[in-house]
UniProtKB/TrEMBL annotation:
Domain (Nudix hydrolase): residue spans on this chain: 111-252
Name of the protein: DUF4743 domain-containing protein
GO molecular function: 8-oxo-dGDP phosphatase activity
CDD domains in UniProt: NUDIX_Tnr3_like
Superkingdom: Bacteria
Length: 292
């Protein structure tokens, strides 16, 4: 196994900092393990009669989660995004509840997002469209980002969310965005100031014509740039210019295009870590609900 400080594995380690349960408390929905309660809301949930720090917390009716999330937002425990996300127990499971996306980390619930590599083939090689995040974004303002990326709202499939984000973020027509191909799924579990992020990223490639120019429609992107894939490779290897999880999607892209040798020890470790998570205590347990 490569050392911990290899240029690309460092990004996986930075996105897999959570050790479950750590200082969190088990949370179940409808009698099934669902997440991990952040200490910031533990006392409040005890007051609500939903459990204790010693026994864990539970909500018998998953449909009540949305109302609970609204109450916590009104009381200032988190800042509402005014956007509901579906709650799933794990990868590939159906939705059993809904809650504002801002509350997901407080409950340690799985969240799903979409990321799209906007690619252009030219005579001198492959190019990648990048976006510069607006300076007023809550998360990683001013960082480099994908051409299209975002969370999957409640009631949407990942492919539906991709079409929505493509139109809003880069003014890509639905008939063009629909040509995007799902290429991989990436998981990680990350400690953030807002809580525990247990994310699944659905990753897509879309090859765009040379004369395509993206236009920001929703104000979330400051500017767009078209750069050679090798330049993106250098930025990921040498810097932290890209938003934290964008690095993971680009590493997957580099592996598929063999800028990173997928059969090398580092390449194999990267592929395992992208697919299963890379917990500091127990690799492969990033999204697990079992204590490590």
């Amino acid at each position: 196994m490569p050392s911990d400080d290899t240029p690309f594995l460092r990004h996986l380690r930075q996105c897999n900092t959570a050790v479950v349960p750590g200082n969190r408390f088990a949370f179940s929905l409808g009698g099934q393990p669902a997440g991990w309660i952040d200490p910031a809301i533990a006392d409040r949930l005890e007051q609500e009669g939903l459990g204790s720090r010693t026994e864990g917390f539970a909500l018998a009716n998953p449909a009540d989660l949305e109302t609970l999330g609204e109450k916590l937002a009104q009381e200032g425990f988190y800042r509402s995004h005014h956007e509901l996300f579906d709650v799933r127990l794990d990868v590939g499971q159906p939705a059993i509840a809904r809650i504002d996306r801002g509350a997901l980390p407080l409950f340690g619930l799985v969240a799903i997002g979409v990321h799209m590599n906007g690619l252009v083939r030219k005579q001198n090689g492959l190019y990648l469209w990048t976006g510069r995040r607006a300076r007023n974004k809550r998360l990683d303002p001013g960082k480099l980002d994908h051409l299209v990326a975002g969370g999957v709202p409640a009631g949407h499939s990942p492919s539906e969310a991709l079409l929505k984000e493509a139109a809003e973020e880069a003014s890509i027509a639905p008939e063009i965005a629909a040509q995007a191909q799902e290429v991989s799924r990436i998981v990680y579990a990350l400690n953030r100031p807002e809580g525990l992020r247990r994310d699944i990223l659905y990753c897509y490639d879309l090859f765009l014509p040379e004369d395509f120019t993206p236009e920001a429609a929703d104000g979330e992107v400051e500017s767009f740039s078209l750069i050679k894939l090798e330049e993106a490779f250098e930025l990921v290897r040498e810097t932290d210019e890209f938003k934290f999880n964008v690095n993971l999607v680009l590493i997957d892209l580099f592996l598929r295009h063999r800028l990173i040798n997928p059969t090398s020890p580092e390449g194999q470790a990267l592929q395992r870590g992208l697919a299963y998570g890379l917990s500091p205590a127990s690799p492969g347990k990033a999204l697990s609900l079992e204590p490590v």
